[in-house]
Amino acid sequence: MTDDTQARIAEVVNSADVLLFMKGTPLFPQCGFSSRAIAILDRLGVEYATVDVLQDQGIRQGIKQFSDWPTIPQLYVKGEFIGGSDIMMEMYEEGELAQLLEDKGVAKAA
């Protein structure tokens, strides 16, 4: 993977307070894990952005190296890698994800 791809990913990661790299879009997730991740973010009521990795092969492969995490979806909060859908689900159920978003000052969706 090129440094250019890494730079693009870093730029995207820092472009939104909450960013989800996923397969598909929030309206049409292309896998169950991406669908679950969107459902969690929607329930938490925060503003978030998404990147459809199916639209860009470079990002699809590059994000796995960027985070050193083998699967998609991947959640970032204020530029920090949080985890995939299983970690999101665990943190959501424990109330940790809502607390993290609050601690980081993430805006609620309008």
Describe the structure.
- This protein has 110 residues and is of the alpha+beta class.
- The chain is built from five helices and four strands.
- A four-stranded mixed beta sheet has the order 2-1-3-4, with helices on both faces.
- Helix 1 packs across helix 3 and helix 2 runs parallel beside helix 4.
- The longest helix has 13 residues.
- The mean pLDDT is 96.
- It comes from Sphingomonas jatrophae.
Order of SSEs:
HEHEHEEHH
* Class per helix and strand makeup: alpha+beta
- How confident overall, as mean pLDDT? 96
CATH topology: Glutaredoxin
Into how many domains do the coordinates divide? 1
Residue windows where pLDDT falls under 50 for at least 5 positions: none
Largest sheet: 4 strands, mixed
What fraction of the residues are assigned to beta strands by DSSP?
15-25%
The helix content, as a percent range, equals 40-55%
Shape label: globular
Q: Would you state the CATH class?
A: Alpha Beta
Supply Rg.
13 Å
**Cross-sheet strand order for the largest sheet:** 2-1-3-4
Keywords: 2Fe-2S, Iron, Iron-sulfur, Metal-binding, Redox-active center
GO molecular function: 2 iron, 2 sulfur cluster binding; disulfide oxidoreductase activity; metal ion binding
Family: Belongs to the glutaredoxin family. Monothiol subfamily.
Protein name: Glutaredoxin
